[in-house]
């Protein structure tokens, strides 16, 4: 009897002991900061006047709803996610379909296309800013040689173009992720299903539409959700390429939150913007988490 | 005849489009490397001179001799090794617990770590800055590594739990029957079998930490400035010296590229497998 109860008391503690270091550190650097940001978002707090902080509840959120730049940033965030994730996906899908055939330079091609994925955002910003350069950029030179433009274009300084230039950079950075994950999915589709469809007279397009895509639906969904989260959170490439400008042309919500808190030192308002972003994103995160944790036994 | 027609078709349906995609993926990188070995006179020529008149390493020499770049690379190395060590040290026991025990709160904690990995960086970065300032850890390796722990630990736990869960529990039981303690079973059975997964996870954290910019920018000052932050400052400082900047870019990109090519195949499985089998 006593042995039984001691087993019951001690055994369940072991896993918590194993988890303790991870829980303590993650609590300190993720949970506590996140809660602090929530708390700050409820206050009117400016860095150089910490004593003047006062509790204003949802005042910052209400301020955001009346802030034109907030709406500009939110709209551009949505466009940014739809365009860059959408194009990353389409190009990645096409690349995966091409790579899913056998030819002599296949493994070389597969290795080379992942390179953009490996690079630091600072280098991505650097190389693309260099290519978009007004005076010496290779993009202007190529387009002029091809006769597509008559004079150099100031790609990143033009409010109508800067946003799409940064989107192109993001597409370049992100399509390898889709290519590689979708390729892995393609290779898991049984070949006999495709053969059976071919024997039944299905065209290539019909096979893609009715066999391949349904077979990939799961992996595509997971990859899309993961990528949406990454792109929605990421602000470093924009920050490094345009700093959100010219004007507000490349502002997105995380960038605006960062600038308010970091440059304008309006901690309270910046925190509120970060909280709004997190709240919007949690819908997508929940979708991803639900898919990813389906297999967890309790 | 048929042979020629199919091979022509293959050229236009496979080789040409794929070659264009590979060129798109590689061009910015190659252009950076090519600029870094061009003499300044070539770089400043308009219309552009694509192929260098001669190869030069002058930009690399200037960069390493006249700037703090070498020291910054050293700092990045220490931070990335530190983040990898902290990530693994916390995640290996945690992943073991998740894969080998059933306990109250298991699912909630596992989901919690996954969600922690998805938090926007803007939600965390200011309070971490304030916390580090309070602890006197601004501009120290410990401070930057703590910032990188925000992604290193949750990511490693998620990856390692699925690797550990794939190891049959019968292996641990066999070791225990042979008289091994729990820690011996982990050291002699689990770790060796899971080593490929552990190495993949370690390299991925190393690359992510080496590449990271925002935390390093906020938390490191002059003493421990990492190479990504240093490069960004150079962009402001040497705004038109593209030879120098691209040389720096090439040196920073190289380790990440090589390591990534080593792990990329195994990484894909881990990232999308998602479900942790019970």
List its traits.
heterodimer; A: 298 residues; mainly alpha; MetI-like fold; two-stranded antiparallel sheet; 14 helices; 72% helix; globular; disordered N terminus; B: 278 residues; 2 domains; 12 helices; disordered C terminus
Concise account of the structure shown:
The complex is a heterodimer of chains A (298) and B (278). Chain A is 72% helix and 1% strand.
3D architecture notes:
Chain A is mostly helical and 298 residues long. Chain A has a single domain, classed as MetI-like fold (Orthogonal Bundle). Chain A is built from 14 helices and two strands. Chain A has helices spanning 2-10, 13-41, 59-65, 68-99, 106-113, 115-118, 121-132, 138-145, 162-186, 191-199, 204-233, 236-241, 253-262, 267-292; strands spanning 43-44, 54-55. Chain A is globular and about 75 Å long. Chain A starts with a helix and ends in a 6-residue tail after the last helix. Chain B has 278 residues and is an all-alpha fold. Chain B has two domains: 2-57, no CATH class; 67-273, MetI-like (MetI-like fold, Orthogonal Bundle), CATH 1.10.3720.10. The longest helix of chain B has 35 residues, at 2-36. Mean pLDDT of chain B is 87; it is low at 274-278. At the A-B interface, helix 2, helix 4, helix 5, helix 6 and helix 7 of A face helix 1, helix 4, helix 5, helix 6 and helix 7 of B.
